[in-house]
């Protein structure tokens, strides 16, 4: 199933975005996240059913989780980069 479709048309989609440690350390964090979010645009018609979740890939199983400040920066960046598509909650 893609972010743009659901079998019944009534499902909410959670899209997970995140970067690897190498991407984060190389300074390509924003490019990586922008690329992941841009891939959604042609496929989603109803943004009210989309939730974007963020976690760095390196956090999976390592305990190196994103700080609340990092997550807040991502939210601000997403809203700024894609005006009119997201509602901040």
From TrEMBL:
<dbReference type="InterPro" id="IPR035990">
    <property type="entry name" value="TIM_sf"/>
</dbReference>
<comment type="similarity">
    <text>Belongs to the triosephosphate isomerase family.</text>
</comment>
<protein>
    <submittedName>
        <fullName>Uncharacterized protein</fullName>
    </submittedName>
</protein>
<comment type="pathway">
    <text>Carbohydrate biosynthesis.</text>
</comment>
<keyword id="KW-0413">Isomerase</keyword>
<dbReference type="Pfam" id="PF00121">
    <property type="entry name" value="TIM"/>
</dbReference>
<comment type="subunit">
    <text>Homodimer.</text>
</comment>
<dbReference type="InterPro" id="IPR000652">
    <property type="entry name" value="Triosephosphate_isomerase"/>
</dbReference>
<dbReference type="InterPro" id="IPR013785">
    <property type="entry name" value="Aldolase_TIM"/>
</dbReference>
